[in-house]
Structure formats: C-alpha cells, structure tokens
Specification:
Number of domains: 4
Radius of gyration: 29 Å
Number of helices: 23
Number of strands: 12
Largest sheet: 5 strands, parallel
Oligomer: single chain
CATH class of the largest domain: Alpha Beta
Shape: elongated
CATH topology of the largest domain: Rossmann fold
Low-confidence stretches: none
Structural class: alpha/beta
C-alpha cells in the first residue's frame, strides 16, 4: 500500500509528500512532524474552522501511510487576542461592550458556562472535534504566553525587531506605519491589549518602552504574557517557537502567509509547508464569518445529515470556492453514498483516490444503502409524516432484507430525511394544478403503471414514465419530469421517479396521481 500511496494523486497525498520531503524522510529533532491549525475564538466556532482541522487531519493520515515518522496535530487558539468588537451572534452582546480590548481569555462568558468567552468557544470547538474522533492537542495562546513557553521566541523577535519592521511597514498605510509595532503590550492597569507606538527596544533587558495615549512612557518585558504580538508576527513566532511543519490557511490569508514566512526566516527559522484553500460562501455568495454567524454551523449540518457527509463535502476541491447552505446537504449526502458504494468495487489504487478513503482513513463502513437521500426525502414528502416507522414500512417492502438494526446508516438517513423535509422542504412546497396536456399525460401514466406486472421494479416504472413523456411530446423531456415534481411533490426537482415508485408502491403512486387530478390538496396529505 505504501508504494501506491507514493503515487496517489489525491490532494492529501500530494500535500503529505511535500511534508515528507521537507523533513528529508527523517524524524525532526523535536521527535515528530507537527501539523497545526489555527482558531481565533472571537466568535462561535463555524464550519470553516472544522474544515481546516479535518483537511489537515486528512493530510496527516496520508503522511502516516507514507512514513513511520511520529506526528502531532496542534489545534491552536489565539485566545489572547484583544476583543476588537462584540460578535453579532451572541446573547446580550451589549453587555460585553465594556470588555472591548481585553484578551478574549479575559472577557466574561456571555453564555455563563465557562470562565471566559474564549474558554466557551474553545470548549465548543474541542467538544465537536472530540465527538468527531479527531486526534489532536489543544494549545492556548494565553497559556503559551503566560507560562513562558513563548519567551525564547519573543526575545528572538525583539532581537530582530528592525528586520520585522522592514518586512511589515511597506505593507501598511502611511498613518498605520507611524505607530505600528509587532509588540502589543498588555496594560498593567486596564488589562487591555494596546496598539501603541514602541519608542525603545532594550534587547539586553528583554523589554520595550511604549507610549500610552496620555503620553506617558511605560517599560514592560516582552515575556511572561506582558506583551502579545500583532497577527502576522504572532503567526511567525508561533511557527518558530513550535517548529511547525505544515499549516493550511484560507485564500484571504495569502499575504499574511508571505509576510509571516519572511518574519520566520528573519528569526532564523523555517516557515511550514503551506496550502491555500478557497473560502466557504453563504447562499448569497458572501464569505462566511464567525462574528456574523452567516452560513451553516457544524451543528446545523449534523442536525440534518450524517457527519460523514460533512467530511465528504470538505474533501472535495478545497481550492474551489463552495457555497455552504442548507440546500447543498441532500446532494452531498447522496454523493457520499455513491462513493461509499463504489469503494467496495475499487482496486487499491482507485481506493486511495476515493473520497471515502480520506473520510474514514481507509476503513469506510461496509453497508449497502439501497435508497438515496433524495428518494427518502420524497417518500417523507408523499407520506407527510414525522414517524420513522411509516417510512420503514415502505422501505421493508422495497428492500425486505433491510432493517433499522441491520442498516444503521439507512436508519439514520430516515430520521434525517424526515427532519430535513419538515424544516426545509414542506414549508417551501408550491403545488400546482396540471394543464390539459399534463392531465392527459398523467391519465396515460396511470394506465401504464396499471399495466405493469406484479413485482415490477424501478426500471420498468421508469420506462413507463419515459414512454408517456415521449408520447405526449414533452420537449425537452425534462419538462415532463419537472411537471411531475411540481404537480405531485410541490417542488421543481425530485428523485428518480422509477426508484420512488418502486419504493412508494405502484398502487400508492396511482392513488397520489388520482388525488392530484381530482384537485385534492396534497400538502394536507
């Protein structure tokens, strides 16, 4: 398998080979290869944060197929950053206004469950990562700064202060240049993280002198948590201090990666291997933001679909921008199921390319799922039920060998389909009446279905639907299918009709068509 992994072109293997080349195929002095992900707990964790941990883990697991070198993953939280604004999506946000500019780890928790706002958000992130089964080490910036773990790197940053300034100042506007310093002192009186000019650096004493807004000059050590670094120098210092080998980042941080890499080199270190991914967008094409709370949360996706479908979504084309909102869930569930079914038929080389190999670290579940998520959604629609047993009654007739106990994935999908249907599909259904040609075609479809032999399957039913569409000269033929979806399901798109008819039942489908022809309100089914 290692030989195949060395040739595999799935993006995690491509990235893993970069890391292996970086370390020269040998264990680094620190004893392991370090993968890192960063999290800014200025808002509740969102799905983009999870995506970075998941994708980095995929690269890590690919690396472990290429080499026996030990690895670690640090989930790093920049929780000493000053709170610049109150996020939009937290309760009683006005009450936090008085805590602006304090480190996030010193801001009270608005949810009342943890010691600080950062601790609450960090816990939310860790709980989700734990639930997902990630192997990682959580690292807090506040602890690193205050414990002295970063002291040596901070002193090195002070020693190359002028070089850092020469890297950063050309990237800033004229006004910002006048006051910029990589060091942000933490005020001993207010606890605020200050953005103030540094007037003197004392490398020997390991201290800076900064000027407060009132004109007073204050000396403070750069170590022991008395200073925090600006974002780009902070990132560089972290790479240097921890000897990070690999870190991903979004397209919006391309310039930050460049500047931080230069600073790391100025400190005498080597920046990690990097990978730039595209950003997730909401349904309006706008960037997803933790503070705004737009787009999907991890919890929202998992309320309506299996967690493996979320991992599948994250695997696909990280360098392409993708919209992330509720409507993408059914499609990705079905694509995941399709890849899962294909995996069993793939040879070893093809399996390393298959998304589910990376979702499950080479060991996907072995379960045949006889129905797509979209078919289950439409079954829930036709039955208009919140009762899983009702849907299982139809499933058991269609696939007698299936049961909730023997098919846990399918059983989980049934529950998700009902919930998704009730919350998103049902409220947006818009049934319409058939026109004269459609009424005639529907009557012909009834006759065609009635002519099917007992026990006819999905293909026979699908062929009947096709034949009626051709007979009544729907051009293009998809107009016929769209008419069926709008008249029978109240929506513009739907399942493969043959599969639905086989599942729902020929007699039940005929009854559904008759109800539509009689003008009955199908939404009240």
């Amino acid at each position: 398998m290692r030989e195949l992994a060395e040739q595999a072109n799935a993006w995690p293997f491509v990235e893993a080979r970069k890391v292996l080349k970086r370390v020269g195929g040998k264990t680094p002095d620190k004893g392991y290869v370090l993968f890192e992900t960063g999290y800014g707990p200025s808002g509740l964790p969102h799905i983009g944060t999870f995506a970075e941990v998941l994708r980095t883990t995929m690269v890590r697991r690919a690396f472990e197929r290429l080499s026996d070198i030990p690895t670690k993953l640090f989930a790093f939280s920049d929780d000493m950053d000053g709170m610049r604004k109150v996020p939009d999506n937290i309760p009683d946000g006005d009450k936090l206004q008085e805590f602006l500019h304090l480190p996030l780890s010193a801001v009270p928790d608005p949810f009342g469950t943890h010691d600080s706002f950062a601790a609450h958000n960090n816990a939310r992130l860790c709980a989700f990562l734990d639930d997902y089964g990630f192997e990682y080490t959580f690292v807090s910036a506040t602890e690193c700064y205050k414990s002295g773990q970063f002291d040596a790197a901070l002193l090195k940053m002070l020693a190359v202060y002028d070089a850092v300034q020469s890297i950063m100042l050309p990237t800033l506007g004229e006004e910002r240049r006048k006051t910029y310093s990589p060091f942000l002192p933490v005020c001993a009186e207010t606890g605020h993280v200050l953005q103030v000019p540094v007037v003197e650096c004392d490398v020997e004493a390991g201290a800076i002198v900064y000027q407060r807004e009132d004109g007073k000059q204050v000396e403070t050590p750069v170590t022991g948590g008395h200073c925090k670094l600006q974002w780009k120098p902070d990132w560089a210092m972290r790479w240097f201090a921890l000897s990070v080998d690999y870190e991903m980042s979004g397209k919006d941080l391309i310039d930050s990666v460049k500047q931080s890499s230069k600073i790391t080199r100025a400190m005498g270190g080597r920046p990690p291997e990097s990978y730039t991914y595209e950003l997730f967008l909401d349904e309006n094409g706008e960037k997803i933001s933790k503070s705004r709370g737009n787009g999907l949360t991890m919890e929202e996706w998992l309320a309506y679909a299996p967690k493996d479908s979320l991992a599948y979504f994250m695997f696909g084309k990280p360098t392409a921008a993708k919209r992330l909102y509720f409507d993408v869930i059914p499609k990705n569930v079905d694509e995941y199921l399709s890849h899962l079914a294909k995996f069993e038929k793939d040879d070893d080389a093809a399996r390393l390319k298959n998304a589910v190999w990376h979702v499950h670290n080479g060991e996907p579940p072995q379960e045949t799922v006889p129905l797509s998520f979209n078919v289950l959604l439409n079954l829930a629609s036709a039955c208009n039920t919140e009762d899983k047993e009702v849907l299982w009654g139809f499933i058991a007739r269609y696939a007698p060998e299936a049961s909730p106990e023997a098919n846990p994935i399918l059983d989980e999908l049934v529950g998700f389909a009902i919930r998704y249907y009730m919350d998103f599909v049902k409220p947006n259904k818009r049934y319409r009446a058939a026109d004269d040609r459609e009424r005639a075609a529907l009557s012909a479809l009834i006759a065609g279905l009635e002519s099917l032999p007992e026990g006819a399957g999905a293909e026979e039913a699908q062929n009947q639907v096709y034949e009626v569409g051709k007979q009544f000269e729907f051009e293009p033929l998809r107009d016929w299918f769209r008419a069926l979806y709008e008249i029978l399901f109240g929506q513009e798109q739907g399942p493969r009709l043959g599969s639905f008819i086989a599942l729902y039942g020929v007699g039940e489908t005929i009854a559904l068509i008759n109800r539509a022809l009689s003008g009955e309100d199908l939404s009240a089914a």
